Amino acid sequence: MNVTYADNIQQGGEGYLLIQQATRRLEEILGLSSGLVSAEWDREVDKTGRSLYRLTLRGVNFSANEGHRPPLDQNNQEADILRSPLSFVVLNNFGGQASTEFTLEELRDPLQMRFCLPRLYGDLLQQWSDQQHKIVLTMLDQIDSNQGGD
Question: Would you list the domain boundaries of the chain?
């Protein structure tokens, strides 16, 4: 997984350490899918002076983003998903993004992280699923219109 940290986070001391822990947990959650997702951490300060840490997950579009490589399996071979006939459709449309904010207290709480990180990934997967559903419906419409013209 490609992870970027805003400059203002790397100066944050405890926040930076907690974010690194959360990132490692996220990579465990993603497993072999980690090559399909990029993560970006940023820090903002709210009106009360409290730090808020924003995590944004994005689906990687391999055709548009040459800096990302497809996921590899245990033998450093392209993952099986890339060998399927629909891999072009799947990977070139794995877009979308999902984000959430954490307080320092939430980052410290392992239970909070165990709940929020998978939910955030689930939000991204739902967007991807919706995109794939639209693609399939479009393909079916095209098939129907081609068969109707014969």
Answer: 2-148
Can you tell me which residue has the tokens 């970006």? Answer: 40
Q: What is the pLDDT of residues 83-131, one digit of tens each?
A: 444 444 455 556 789 999 999 999 999 999 999 999 999 999 888 888 8
In 3D space, the residue among 116, 2, 26, 99 whose CA is nearest the CA of residue 57 turns out to be 99
Instruction: Output the CA–CA distances (angstroms, integers) from residue 117 to 14, 33, 102, in the order listed.
Output: 19, 14, 11
pTM: 0.74
Q: Which phi and psi angles does 96 have, rounded to 5°?
A: 90, 170
* Measured CA angle at 105 (ends 104, 107), to 5 deg: 65
Alpha carbons within 13 angstroms on the beta-carbon side of residue 105 total 1
